[in-house]
Task: structure prediction
Amino acid sequence: MVKTGRKHAWLAVVALVSPLTSPVMANSAGAAEEPIATGLCPIPQALIQRPLEPIANLQEGAIGVRSSRADIDSETQIASFFGDVEVQFGQQTLFTEQAQVNQLSGNINASGETLFTDGYVEVASENFRLNSGENRAYLSGATYQMRTNGARGEADILSLSEAQVRLEGATFTTCPTENPAWRMSAEQITINEDEAFGEARHAKIELFGVPVLYLPYLNFPVSDERKSGFLFPTVRSSQRHGFELELPYYLNLANNMDATITPRYMAKRGTMLQAEYRYLSEAGNGQVNFGYLNDDASLESEQSRFFWRLEQQQQWSPNWRSYINALVISDDDYINDFGSDFAGRADAQLYRHAQLDYHADALSAMLRIEDFELLGSYRAAYRTLPQLNLTYQGTGELGLDYRVYTELTRFQNQELSSDTVTRFHLEPELSYQVERPAYDWEANLSYSYTRYQQDANLLDGRSEDPDRALPSFRWRGRLNLERQFTWGERTYLQTLQPQIQYLYRPYRDQSGIGIYDSTLMQDDYRGLFRERRFSGLDRIADANQVTIGATTSFATAQAREVARFSIAQIHYFKESRTQLFDSSSAILNNNSDLAAEVRFQLSDNWSFASDLQYDMELNRTQKSQTALEYRKDPNNLFQISHRNAINLLDDDIEQIGMQAIAELTPQWQLAGNWYYDIENRRTNDALLALQYSDCCWALRFGFYRRINRNLELQQNTPLLGTPEFDNGFSVQLMIKGLGSDNRSLIDLLEQSLFGYRHPFHLSN
Result:
């Protein structure tokens, strides 16, 4: 027997088995290190308060011990250690008052109060036993705490192996407080390293000490990695649906794909099945969504309601790529009745298309299938089945750029399949550009030829095989001016960019051509400098006009833009006679509306934006959209907005809106919006939500009132006339540490009828 001094005892013991490795993640951390903060809750106190000091010159695979006293029995090869015993083996450290190490078997036994850590889990227990044959350590009467995610609890027996933590008669929670908001107790809890998830058998979920759920089997994440299992439900109630319950089940199918299946029970309508599938590859990604309600009990007819959506993009090679985006609904009211993450309740149409693109140095091509579905009782739209575009461009002699665009499209009426149209378009173009630091200008000369084969009944005024040839000339020039100036104690850079554009195109009678993909585009500031007033090719407007405009901006010395002003107007030398369906789209004035944009970054938190279209002859605003916003951070913002539109479907629209999110305390958040129709003196959309959240759970209450759009019945715009309203509320519990949807309240505002938009990105 060898005795050592009272201060320290050192012994190097060659282990007969590999030392234990950390389950879930090998993160060696000393007790003196600060634990990771867990959100709004207090930082959990580490079980091991003493510092971890590695034993010097400890060879790999050896067991190192320091203690006050050591005894070694040379016959049994058992070493006994007493007083402030610290045992180190691999990444594991054991603190105790008395321990025995068997040098032949590698077994370790410690009695009395022990502290153990492997860098991932810290355990305080009544004793410790390492069985080298099983390569597993056993601790009884254990209190444990995981350093990576703050999970903690108690266990009658806690056992550790190379890739697993197993708890018998255990509790589990991610709340670090003395009285946790939620806790799980189970006969057995297993946490595996490779999959980073936990399994519980015969588990009870307690909220504030009250058992609320029993599950014979439960799996749950113990890290940010994905794991199959139930997510927490959402509870709602509304006038149209009655009581609602959603219970999503998440499927982690592979590292690059997952799915969520969500039964949605609605007391007044029935049970809907919703599903989502996502995948990701090196060259692309895709997502499929599906919803189906077999029999809507709220309708007199036994009508099934459904939707499906597919989005997929793929990069096949450096030159070839494809994209698909399709959304199909059973009826026009589906989005209004059930909502969707992919279409807003205020949307008037659904757009779906699939296309294949080719891009090379000089040649680009696109093959596309396109479809518009107008929601409500409107004129049936046409599908493109398909459309082929080819563009060839380059630079020739004398610095002239050339471009040849050609298109072949076949249209089909959505409601009358015999109404088919073939369109061929050819458009060569020459352009010349000059760019200097102080100015730039560009001249374009093009000639377009379009021919149609209209196979439908021609009683609607369309010609059988019309064609159209149109030359076009466009010149656009800009000055680029700038100056520095000082205002107060700051230096600013102001830029001024006046620009002028002349556009000429003769008139051609196009009344014999049907309308297949053309509509009137916006006359905002940028729109006034477009070459065409209509989208598509069915109408190309005649023009003899000049557009004059200017933009000025102010930026700090750090190139941060703080203000921008833009204003423009078109002056017509000759009125444009080209129109769509009626004379409302023809030009009858000498000047266009005055289009202006204003952007202000008033301070780090305040911003202002306004877009305006003003009729100079009638002296009235035709369209405007203005917003003022205070935004401290995503949890604190306030916005007030105003929107105005004159003569929209023979009626005016004027609305005011307010949106706000306020962090009342670190735990409490309040959010709401309110949109008021000034013309009709009614609230179109209102929402109030209150959320409590801390590091381990959250509870959200939501109350809403919104206009109910009966698109199947309304003949005109769905927000006019005498509407119905839907009132309801929702309750959502989110448990952190067992998997949940933990989106912020700003996401809730974005899903409302009109949605949240940052002032610098307002849609016109």
